Amino acid sequence: MGFQLGLSGAELSRRAMTQATRLGTEFLLALSVKSIDQKDGYKKIILENDKEINTRSVVITTGVDYRKLETTGVANFTGAGIYYGAAVTEAASCKDKEVYVVGGGNSAGQAAMYLSKFAKNVYILIRKEDLSSTMSAYLIDQIKETNNIFIKPKTEIYEAIGNEKLEKLVLNNIENGEKETKEADALYIFIGAKPFTEWIELNIIKDEKGFIETGRELKNYENFNKIWKQTRDPYLLETSCPGIFAAGDVRAGAMNRVASAVGEGSMAISFVHKYLAEVK
């Protein structure tokens, strides 16, 4: 028996839930998990109503919460031209449009490269002078070679303007305070994300940002050998607690793409079967 954490009713379509139910899945909607414990070879999941669920295996897919850009007008158009993270479905609608990306990290660079295949122009807004201290060199080189991607250093968004959707952005030069208004069809924001892992108190190793470490990366931590008692190495998506797996954005080193998360979820289930075969 396995248990998956992280999928809420709002994130599942009616059709997907119906299909999953037919395959034997039970959904506990509107209930969050307080903690996970271990006892007699079982994982004990404690829900917010103090109900306990005993299971042999757990897959954690609780995702992340993107840092919000607290700028005038941004909240008004979130989902209507302004997006946190790069969504493939929205990218296709950017064909021949003016698109802006906020952020200087690899996620922002990867998004800009992808969006450039559709958009007329892509503008990367950063507060620093250049990308050298925040983005991998290979991505910087790719961006330089892409004719319709432009870097706007020492620039921040002062205001987002529109009616029912985003139409314009007021940009502010951090150095001299000069402002300019630009036509903008879409804005993608990459200013960091925080994983939903604070509730995990079990011996599950996380990185310095709170993302769950899995697989061979666990061996880089000094306390791994004290925690891991199996004769085998952890499976690719397995945490430092045997039988507990992590998939999607909550996992350290995840690709932060919908397709990747779906693939990891499927892969995690295959590892669950391997683990369950071990503990029979």
Give a topology summary.
Layout: E1 2-5, H1 14-22, E2 33-39, E3 42-47, E4 52-55, E5 57-60, E6 64-66, E7 82-84, H2 88-92, E8 98-102, H3 106-115, E9 121-125, H4 137-144, E10 149-152, E11 155-162, E12 166-173, E13 179-183, E14 186-189, E15 193-195, H5 224-227, E16 244-246, H6 258-278
Parallel strand pairs: 1-5, 5-16, 7-14, 8-9, 8-14, 9-10
Antiparallel strand pairs: 2-3, 3-4, 6-15, 11-12, 12-13
Number of domains: 2
Overall morphology: elongated
Nearest-integer average pLDDT: 88
Helix-strand string: EHEEEEEEHEHEHEEEEEEHEH
Arrangement of strands in the largest sheet = 7-14-8-9-10
Beta content comes to: 25-35%
Radius of gyration (CA) equals: 22 Å
Oligomerization: single chain
CATH uppermost class of the largest domain:
Alpha Beta
Q: Helix amount, in percent?
A: 10-25%
Given as residue ranges, the uncertain stretches (5+ residues, pLDDT < 50) are 7-12
Q: Helices and strands: which structural class?
A: alpha/beta
Kindly identify the CATH topology of the largest domain: FAD/NAD(P)-binding domain
Number of helices: 6
The H-level CATH homologous superfamily of the largest domain, spelled out, is FAD/NAD(P)-binding domain
CATH architecture designation of the largest domain? 3-Layer(bba) Sandwich
Distance between the termini: 11 Å
Count of distinct strands: 16
Main pleated sheet: 5 strands, parallel
